[in-house]
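Can't paste images in this forum, so I'm doing it all in text. The chain is below; anyone willing to post the predicted structure tokens underneath?
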Amino acid sequence: MIKKIVFFFMLFIFFSNDNYAQENKIKISPNNLLGTSSILLTLEDRGKYSLIIKNKTGEKIFIKKFEIFEKKLFAFKHNFKNFDKGDYTFELSKERKIIANKKFSKI
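Text version of the structure:
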């Protein structure tokens, strides 16, 4: 129960900091990749999206496809325990066009 409260509190803080900006954003909470981290996506338009995580060699190691029906914050948790230490690229695409790109590290 406490984990759910903390998760929703973190969503509220990230969402309120964006002030409904017209920009697609990728955030990770906590800021680096730990065992299980929350992935927060701020999406400006409805449509079909995909999030691809690539390792340092450019190999796709995770793909999540989803559809949004209104501008909102899309959040989910992912377990990064099996990921090696290093840098990872997160690419957010809409209809096969990259709309946001960000690097995160696992230390």
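Strands lie at 25-29, 36-43, 47-54, 60-68, 72-79, 86-94, 97-106. Confidence is low (pLDDT under 50) at residues 17-22.
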